[in-house]
Structures are given as C-alpha cells and as structure tokens.
Design a protein that fits this description.
Elements: H1 3-13, H2 27-40, H3 51-63, H4 73-84, H5 90-96, E1 98-100, E2 107-109, E3 114-116, E4 122-123, H6 125-128, E5 147-148
Region (Disordered): 1-26
Length: 149
C-alpha cells in the first residue's frame, strides 16, 4: 500500500477534530483567530495550514458563503503564505488524492468530498446532503463550520 492510501486510511479511521474550547463555530471567526495567532507570533511556518485544512481555506475564500463579511486582509495574507509554503501544483495534487467519507466510509477522490472549514472532516455528496441546511444554499457541519469543496 502506497503512502497516499496509508494516509487516507489513517484519515478515515481517525476521530475528527472538534471546534476550539471557546465554541467559536463560524468559519470567518475560526480563520480570523488562526490567522491572528500567525500574525501575533511573527508569521511562523508552524502556524500555516497544509493538506485538507489549506484546501478547505482556499475553497472557503473562493466560495464566500452567504452572509460572510468582506474577508479580512490578514486571512488572505495567511492563505497566500500557506500556499507559497507548498510544492508547485499542490492544490490539484491534493484534489487527486483519495479519501473517505467520515460518515459512511466510502472512498472518493478528494475533489468529490466536502470538507468542513472548522473541523476538517470530509463527507461524500450523499452524506453531506443529509446535513442541516442553514440557508437556501449552504449546509453546515455539526461543529458549525461550512461545507466546502
């Protein structure tokens, strides 16, 4: 089994992370908090996102969910720094990786899975369709994050 499949298997069996202890469930506030920590600590590479989390941030910035105020320039700087820290063609490489739905366990390419912006769990189109609809257009994870992808 190659490294991509092993990492996908680990993701499938891992317990999904949950929201921070302050109960901050909005994607905008979640990203503002993380980008703020990066800024306060003088831009350490350890505070940059990678993998699924960076894909979710990029998708969220690109989709601008309903009701999202104008994006904080700090979030955009943080995204740009995170992307600059990745290998060339990282985004398309990530989308081609296989992952699984954290609900039903079925395997898909990441490009076909929805990612939660806050806890980074992934759901297939069938399972994300069963989640609560917060508006006429967007669905939310039980942690309060937006489904993107």
């Amino acid at each position: 089994m190659g490294p991509d499949l092993e990492s996908a298997d680990a993701r499938c069996s891992a317990t999904p992370p949950r929201m921070n202890s302050e109960g901050d469930a909005s994607s905008l506030n979640h990203y503002r908090r993380l980008a703020g920590q990066w800024e306060e600590e003088q831009h350490p590479h350890e505070r940059l996102l990678s993998g699924l989390e960076l894909v979710a941030l990029r998708c969220w910035v690109g989709s601008q969910p309903e009701g999202t105020p104008v994006l904080d320039p700090l979030i955009l700087d943080w995204l740009e720094a995170g992307e600059a820290n990745q290998p060339e063609d990282w985004f398309h490489s990530q989308l081609r990786e296989r992952g699984c739905c954290n609900h039903c366990g079925n395997r898909y390419k990441l490009e076909n899975l929805a990612i939660c912006t806050c806890c980074s769990i992934t759901l297939c189109p069938f399972c994300v369709g069963k989640t609560d609809r917060q508006s006429s257009r967007y669905r939310r994870c039980e942690c309060g994050g937006d489904w993107v992808g």
